[in-house]
Every structure is written in C-alpha cells, then in structure tokens.
Design goal:
The chain has 473 residues and is an alpha/beta fold. It has 2 domains: 327 residues, TIM Barrel (Alpha-Beta Barrel), CATH 3.20.20; 72 residues, Sandwich (Immunoglobulin-like). The chain contains 17 helices and 18 strands. The strands form 3 sheets. It has an 8-stranded parallel beta barrel, surrounded by 6 helices. Strands 11-12-13-16 form a 4-stranded antiparallel β-sheet, with no helix packed on it. Strands 15-14-17-18 form a 4-stranded antiparallel β-sheet. A hairpin with a 2-residue loop joins strand 17 and strand 18. Helix 8 packs parallel to helix 10 and helix 12 packs parallel to helix 13. The protein is elongated. The N terminus is likely disordered. It binds ligand 9MR.
C-alpha cells in the first residue's frame, strides 16, 4: 500500500528524533527530512559490500540519516534470489528489508525480469517456451510473494529495449525464448503476487528525448498499449546514468527531455521515478571544484523534475560514496554526491538547498488530475499544508532562529551573528542552490559579502548544524 506522506513524515520524525520534529526550526536538516516535507522519496542503493559487513559504520549512518528509500545493488536480482532452480535465497534481501523497517524506509525491489544476472540454469531452457514461462512465473510468484507488503515497488521488467533504433532487446533469454509477451505476463504475475505493490518498467537512456527514434518514444508507445490493455503498470523507472555534459562528446540526454517523458506518462496516469542516478566524469580527467559545482546543478535539475511534476515522487542515486561505485566499469568517475571519504560534495549541498527552498505551485492540488487514482499516485504528494512550516514569508521575516543543537543565528544587515558554535563553517547558497559564500573558523560573527536577495545559510560546527533562509536587505 502506498504510504501517505504526512503520516510517513510524522512516523519518520518520530523514528529519527524520538519526538515529532516538524517545525521549521528543526536543526540538522537532512535530505531525508526535507524530502519528507516535500512529499517525495530520496534514496540510494545499499551497496553490495554492505551486506557482507564490509563498509565502515559511517556509511550506514549517512545512509539511514539522509535517505528514506532503499534498493539493493544486486541482492534481489534473479541470480541472487534463485541461484538454483526452485531454491530461493532471501537472506540478503531480508537483511535489507529489516534495515529499512528499523529505519522507517521504503523498499524498492530490483529486478524481476532482466536479461542480465540470470543464473546459468535458466539458459538450459532457452528453446522451451512453456518451461521458460513457468520458470519466470514461479520466480515472480515466490520472490514477490515472499516480500508481499514489505517491498513497496518492483522493477518488474528491466532494460528490455535495445539501444539503437529502439526495438525490443534481442539478446535476452526471456525475449528469445518467450517473445515480447514475457513483459506483459511478468506484470500480470507480479500484480497477482502483491496487488498493493507499485510495478515499474525500468531502463536507461530514457532522458534522450521522447521521439520514435529514442528509447523513451518507443517505451511510451508500449506503455500506452499496456495501459489500454489493462496490464498493471504503475511507473516507469528512468535509471539516468548520465555523464557530465562537458566531457561527454555524444551527450544527448537532458533533464528537460526526461521531464517531457514525465508529462507524457502523466496523461496515462503512470508515474516517473528516477531510479539509478549518477552523473559521472570521464575516468582519468582532472575534476575541478567548478566541475563538481556544475555536477551539483545537474543533480539539482533532475531533482526539480521529481519536485515539480505531480506524477514523479522518487529520486534514487546508484550509490552513496564515489569510493564504492560501479562507474569505473563504465569508464566514469566521481558520479555520486559523497566523496571517497564520505564527505558531502557540492552536489549534496545543491540538493539540500533545493529541497529547503522548493515552493510547490499554489494551484497544483486544484489542477492536477493525475492525483485522483490513489493506487498509483499519492494524493497527498504536493499537500501544501506540509510545506507551510517552511513557507517563504514566514522564514524571510525570521532574523533569529535557533535549533535544538543550540546554534543560534541572528542577521543584522550583512552581518551574521552566531552563538552556540565555537568555530563554525558558514556556507551561503542562492535560491538555485549555487554556493555564493563560504567562511571557515567563524567565531561569533561573519560579514556576508553577498548582494541583496534571498539565500540559504548553513552554519556547521562539528556535528551540529543549522540551515536557515535569510534575506539580505
Ligand atoms: O551496480 C551493479 C553492479 O554491482 C553489478 O556488477 C552490475 C551487473 O550487471 O549491475 C549493477 O547495477 C546495474 C543495475 O542492476 C541495472 N542498471 C545498471 C546498473 C549499473 O550497471
């Protein structure tokens, strides 16, 4: 069952802070707490190394503090869950579900019918259509059935479209052995196994334009057909593995293209989710500070789709830290929002600030027809009452604010007075999330050398921090 966000917000506030902290004065704002205020899910995979206990405790701390949705990097795939015919292994998946439950997180399941990471035994039946149908159905019945009510959404079919001249991908045991109807069947079986789960088609290169020559255009035609035929598809997952615009000479994808897809899907009452985002640079190049800031802006532009499009609700990144990332295999580097030392990168700041200052359009609830179907779309997603506590008007007028962590700030002209911090780091961002000012070792006060306008200021001292809007007049 889809979780309604105000309840989710309260539940998670309780889980996180012991008591519901819902006022605009909550200190230590996280991607997660701000995502919840905005009624969206923000998440990252649990890397495979986590399952074997091979990651530092700081990794898990960051993960559960910053994210409210989780997906396993490899542990719910076919080869992991049914390594031998009819013998299922749910150990790692159960471990993740338990972690998610303990930390109030939503679980995504990835992936049921995919050409990759299929165990060898399946290929023994590649010329036996009836047997392959039974194999796929049995797998879906068991895996979805095992996590019924615990895995909220599934990638039922993954990467079934080929890259060039879009058509179905030929090299797939499911396609070759069964034909394209394996897709329709997989959705029907998954729905029967858990009628409350959201069911997605997931693929990459969907940010490359909605036209018949691009994957998204081909997919859209299939989604129309599935919807017309009553196939239970509720969402399209856009993996969104993209490269930084300046180093990818063949760059043809863009946030605007993905937004177009979201708008087309809205007409069909189907959601768009960003499911595997990373924005890498070519391996081997020197990545500068300004490169990282530009990367942050691209992360933010993709977030805008999720914040602004009524049928978009999920922003999932394919990894936490650059240290543990699959991107090397793709000849890319530094594509995530934490660096090798689990320190937040400029991309993290861009996301945090954008989540902080996002104002939903006032008339969204009145005009959005896609929110009518509660089985697919969360009707409370853009509930402006949730956002009122961080509304612009109220925060502009607040010159003095304090957080439970006891940092207090007061603005006098261009001077920010700080109490409760021995030696603070002060960062100021414009309303697009771009860093405009930074100072270290601030004791007592700092002169903000920035023009008049609205900004977000963040004051950090050790693990205590305060993030506030300010108006320089
Ligand atoms: O990150 C995953 C990596 O550890 C695996 O080796 C790889 C094998 O196919 O799969 C990676 O995850 C992929 C995901 O399941 C589907 N979309 C592309 C992801 C990155 O390759």
């Amino acid at each position: 069952m889809k979780i309604k966000h105000p309840i989710l917000g309260i539940a998670l506030s309780v889980a996180l802070f012991g008591v519901g902290v819902t006022s605009s004065f909550a200190a230590d704002e996280t991607l997660r707490s701000l995502a919840e205020k905005n009624g969206i899910y923000i998440g990252a995979i649990l890397n495979s190394q986590w399952f074997g206990g091979g990651l530092p405790s700081q990794y898990e701390q960051v993960h559960k503090t910053q994210f409210n949705i989780v997906v396993a990097e490899n542990e719910m795939k076919f080869d992991a869950t049914e390594p031998q015919e009819g013998r299922f292994n749910y150990n790692n998946g159960d471990k993740m579900v338990k972690y998610a439950q303990q930390n109030g997180m939503r679980v995504r399941g990835h992936a049921l019918a995919w050409h990759s990471q299929v165990p060898n035994w399946v290929n023994n039946y590649k010329n036996d259509k009836q047997k392959l149908l039974k194999v796929l159905k049995n797998h879906i019945d068991n895996v979805v059935g095992h996590w019924k009510g615990k895995v909220a959404e599934w990638d039922v079919v993954n990467e079934a479209i080929s890259n060039n001249e879009p058509q179905w991908r030929g090299y797939s045991v499911w396609y070759q052995g069964i034909g394209p109807e394996f897709i329709d069947s997989a959705f029907v079986w998954a729905h029967a196994a858990d009628p409350d789960a959201e069911l997605c088609y997931n693929d990459y290169n969907l940010e490359q334009g909605v036209n018949p020559k691009a994957k998204a255009g081909f997919l859209l035609e299939q989604v129309k057909r599935w919807v017309a035929n009553g196939i239970p598809i509720h969402c399209v997952g856009s993996q969104t593995h993209v490269e930084d615009t300046t180093t990818d000479k063949h760059f043809i994808g863009s946030p605007d293209s993905l937004r177009s897809l979201a708008k087309e899907l809205a007409k069909l009452n189907v959601k768009l989710k960003i499911t595997e985002l990373d924005i890498g640079f070519k391996s081997g190049i020197n990545v500068s500070k300004s490169d990282l800031e530009r990367q942050g802006q691209t992360f933010r532009q993709y977030l805008d789709i999720i914040l602004e499009e009524p049928n978009a609700d999920t922003y999932l990144i394919w990894g936490v830290s650059d240290k543990w990332s699959w991107l090397g295999g793709l000849n890319r580097q530094k594509g995530l929002i934490y660096d090798d030392n689990l320190k937040p990168k400029p991309a993290f700041d861009s996301l945090l600030v954008r989540l902080q200052n996002f104002e939903p359009p006032q008339d969204t609830a009145a005009t959005d027809t896609t929110k009518q179907d509660t089985t697919v779309t969360d009707t409370t997603k853009k509930d402006t009452t949730v956002k009122d506590t961080v509304g612009l008007d109220s925060t502009i007028s607040i010159a003095r604010s304090a957080g439970p962590g006891s940092i207090t700030t007061q603005l006098s002209g261009h001077t920010l007075l700080i109490t409760g911090a021995k030696s603070a780091i002060v960062d100021v961002f414009d309303m697009q999330g771009r860093p405009v000012f930074s100072a270290k070792n601030v004791k007592g006060s700092v002169d903000l050398k920035i023009p008049e306008g609205l900004y977000v200021v963040r004051v950090r001292d050790g693990s205590t921090n305060l993030t506030r809007r300010i108006a320089i007049k």
